[in-house]
Amino acid sequence: RGNMAFTGKYEFESDENYDDFVKKIGLPSDKIELGRNCKIITEVVQNGNDFTWTQHFPGGRTTTNTFTIDKEADMETMGGRKFKATVKMEGGKVVADFPNYHHTAEIAGGKLVEISTSSGVVYKRTSKKIA
């Protein structure tokens, strides 16, 4: 495990509760369609407490969040909204509070498992390691 547990390239494999979740956080319907079963590639570079977390969407759009554990950082949501957050590390999970959801990410069984929770709706996305 160690220092670089998250480093790698991960391809979307499956998700649960996508529709309920994105409606709950107010994503517009065109964005909802784009994101459904979307083969997002998530690329993570971890260097100790420093992370660069990039999501590559089909069609060439990318979102990159760069942050250091326990320091406030400028971040961007799935929908492209900018905000400030302090990302924490709790029991091997990366934990962040986005404006309208709570997000955790962990490596479990070699896969990247991300869980976002908003008003009781739990969205789970699993990605398999490809590099």
TrEMBL record:
One of its GO terms (cellular component) is cytoplasm. It comes from the Eukaryota. GO terms for molecular function: lipid binding. Pfam families: Lipocalin_7 (PF14651). The keyword Hydrolase does not apply. The keyword DNA-binding does not apply. Keywords: Cytoplasm, Lipid-binding, Transport. InterPro entries: Calycin, Fatty_acid-bd, ILBP. Gene3D superfamilies: 2.40.128.20. SUPFAM superfamilies: Lipocalins (SSF50814). It is found in: Cytoplasm. Residues 8-25 form the Cytosolic fatty-acid binding proteins domain. Belongs to the calycin superfamily. Fatty-acid binding protein (FABP) family. This is FABP6 protein. It comes from Penelope pileata. The gene is Fabp6.
